[in-house]
Design brief:
Blueprint (H helix, E strand, L loop, with lengths): L1 H26 L5
Length: 32
């Protein structure tokens, strides 16, 4: 269970940072 939570936390962190970069890049597009 501990390993599952550790892996889940790692995936969530990677997904969250990727989502933040995507939103930041989308917000900074010239035509928006």
């Amino acid at each position: 269970m501990a390993w599952f939570l550790l892996i889940l936390g790692g995936l969530f962190e990677v997904g969250f940072t990727t989502a933040l970069r995507f939103v930041e890049g989308f917000r900074n597009l010239p035509w928006t």
